[in-house]
Amino acid sequence: MLLAALVVGIAGGTAVVQAFVRHSFPRLRQGRHNEVAQFIFPVVGLVYGFLIGFMVLSLWGQVNSADQMTRAEGAAAVQLARGLHGFGTAESTRIRQSLLEYARAATAEWPRAAVGRTTPEAENALNRLYGTYEEIKPRNDIQRAVLTGSLASLRDLTGARTQRLLAARSNTGPPASLWMVIFLNTGLVLGFSIIFGTEQARMHYGMVAAVSVLVAANLFLVTELAYPFLGELSSSPEPLHAVIQVLSSPQ
User: Fold this and answer.
1) Mean pLDDT lowest among 154-158, 197-201, 214-218
2) Distance (Å, rounded) from C-alpha 131 to C-alpha 121?
3) What element of type H or E holds 26?
4) DSSP category for residue 140
């Protein structure tokens, strides 16, 4: 939807400006200035391509970091689920229920967590999970070892959750100054494509339309990657869904 809106908006707006320029400045069609434009336009295009490439690589790294945090949280929860069999039946049941409640609450919390906010349900579920492990009294060396490993996994889970929330709160996209640079370069690329002189109107409109679609696609990519926990290309709560599936499967 966003991509379509950008393509239609930028291509349509550029076509209107192009029609106005061709009508108001008919001498531009003669192309006497094309030699200068042919020298400057590649430079502008190169700078624009470098800027967009740098932005995409940087923002893609943020998305990968967000995925790693969520996967670390899910992996720690799965480790806790695998350690259930080291305890007695009653203790294992309580841990399973507490862990399942947390996974469901964290999944339901995702829309708010995507902007760094939490819900009381998820926080309370995590506190109950800690309380469940604190109540366990190991009866042998095996249970003590399993409990030690489970507590380490629980700390990993809490740490990954904290990092995820902090990252969602701080990763608010490129600053306004960088957006201004992107829009300035975008305007230059579109502007030079508009003033490029050619007598054949269809060819000129087609060339400008192609540049407009390219610019719209790049802006869409930057916008989608700018927010690691929002949008179609963002991180997802799939690792938490996997934990729910593991805990809900028949034993």
Assistant:
1) 197-201
2) 15
3) none
4) S
For residue 143, pLDDT over 80 is answered with yes
Distance CA 33, CA 7 (A): 29
Amino acid at 169: R
Q: Kindly tell me the sign of the dihedral angle through the C-alpha atoms of 70, 71, 72, 73.
A: positive
Tokens encoding 3: 């991509």
Count the residues in the chain.
251
**What angle separates helix 176-195 from helix 34-82, to the nearest 10 degrees?**
140
In whole angstroms, what is the distance from residue 246 CA to residue 251 CA? 10
| Segment 113-132, tens digit of pLDDT | 888 888 899 999 999 999 99
- Cβ atoms 128, 104 nearer than 8 A: no
Of residues 121, 73, 132, 72, the one with CA closest to residue 97: 132
Report pLDDT for 155. 94
Largest CA distance in the chain: 92
Distance CA 216, CA 229 (A): 22
The C-alpha R_g of the chain, in whole angstroms, comes to 27
- Tokens 């996994």 correspond to 153
